[in-house]
């Protein structure tokens, strides 16, 4: 595996693959990689001849007071894991490569509507930062396909919308969420949890499962389900930002008689750590 930090070297390597008729998959990450990221890489590996993974802690998707400064940066460890997972190129640019005019002066991509709810409502500007950096990575790599985790469900939908609206010739693929044995979704932010918080954290997944069970058993009053789930999380020591049942397609609020194609999404704070998760009601 080659590690590349500048755009020209990245483009030159990819040009060589293209000349040889090979397809390219991209796995964008912010590093501090775990088994969940490695599963994204495996999906890309299975579907493309060559795989590029990017590691870049993107400043424009963090709001004031969020964890940009303390976000774990573990490049040497990430390199070893990616090489083992069969990555061909690790692209690990500096901020000045991705934002030549500085993050504050960057062109910004805004995906309307979808970004105004849930995460977008609680983290203003977050999805502009995500869409902007992903568009920049897409322009640099020009992949045939790109893989994103389903754990960041809204992010996945935002990127799909951007790709479609901008007519980008890229297949966006979703990789299922990997979980610990107790149900906690794998996330780089889990390491911020104290032992006591870690013991409570699986309550998010347990609550989502309970919501789905109640819904399947006929409890279709989804607003009541949301309220009960939020109360359950609060009793377990969480401070929920939202607990929501939405249409999986466009994250709109379902109508009273909608029974299929729904997803439950949660964002909740446990101490200083903000966790998100979701479950499709299939
Ligand atoms: O999901 C992430 O890790 C990030 O939001 C992404 C897609 C790499 C953009 O910085």
Automatic annotation (TrEMBL):
Its main location: cytoplasm. ATP binds at residues 30-37, 149-152, 178, 186-189. GO terms for molecular function: ATP binding; pantoate-beta-alanine ligase activity. GO terms for cellular component: cytosol. The keyword Nucleotide-binding applies. The keyword Methyltransferase does not apply. It is found in: Cytoplasm. Beta-alanine binds at residue 61. Pathway: Cofactor biosynthesis; (R)-pantothenate biosynthesis; (R)-pantothenate from (R)-pantoate and beta-alanine: step 1/1. Keywords: ATP-binding, Cytoplasm, Ligase, Nucleotide-binding, Pantothenate biosynthesis. It catalyses: (R)-pantoate + beta-alanine + ATP = (R)-pantothenate + AMP + diphosphate + H(+). It comes from the Bacteria. Its EC number is 6.3.2.1. Pfam families: Pantoate_ligase (PF02569). (R)-pantoate binds at residues 61, 155. The active site is at residue 37. One of its GO terms (biological process) is pantothenate biosynthetic process. NCBIfam families: panC (TIGR00018). The reaction proceeds by a bi uni uni bi ping pong mechanism. Homodimer. Belongs to the pantothenate synthetase family. Catalyzes the condensation of pantoate with beta-alanine in an ATP-dependent reaction via a pantoyl-adenylate intermediate. This is Pantothenate synthetase. It comes from Luteibacter rhizovicinus.
């Amino acid at each position: 595996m080659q590690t590349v930090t500048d755009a020209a070297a990245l483009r030159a390597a990819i040009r060589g693959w293209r000349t040889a008729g090979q397809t390219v998959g991209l796995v964008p990450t912010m590093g501090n990689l775990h088994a969940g990221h490695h599963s994204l890489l495996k999906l890309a590996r299975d579907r493309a001849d060559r795989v590029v993974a990017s590691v870049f802690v993107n400043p424009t998707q963090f709001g004031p007071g969020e964890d940009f400064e303390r976000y774990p940066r573990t490049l040497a460890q990430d390199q070893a894991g990616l090489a083992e997972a069969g990555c061909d190129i690790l692209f690990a640019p500096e901020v000045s490569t991705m934002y030549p005019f500085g993050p504050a002066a960057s062109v910004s991509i805004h995906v309307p509507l979808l970004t105004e709810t849930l995460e977008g409502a609680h983290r203003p500007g977050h999805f502009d930062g995500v869409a902007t950096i992903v568009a920049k990575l897409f322009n640099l790599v020009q992949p045939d396909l790109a893989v994103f985790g389903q754990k960041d469900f809204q992010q996945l939908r935002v990127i799909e919308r951007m790709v479609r609206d901008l007519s980008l010739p890229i297949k966006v693929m979703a990789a299922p969420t990997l979980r610990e044995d107790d149900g906690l979704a794998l996330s780089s932010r889990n390491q911020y949890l104290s032992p006591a918080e870690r013991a409570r954290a699986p309550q998010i997944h347990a609550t989502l499962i309970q919501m789905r069970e109640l819904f399947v058993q006929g409890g279709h009053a989804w607003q009541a389900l949301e309220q009960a789930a939020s109360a359950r999380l609060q009793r377990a020591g969480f401070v929920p930002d939202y607990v929501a049942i939405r249409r999986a397609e466009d994250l709109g609020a379902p109508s009273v008689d909608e029974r299929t194609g729904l997803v439950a999404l949660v964002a909740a704070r446990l101490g200083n750590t903000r966790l998100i998760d979701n479950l499709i009601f299939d």
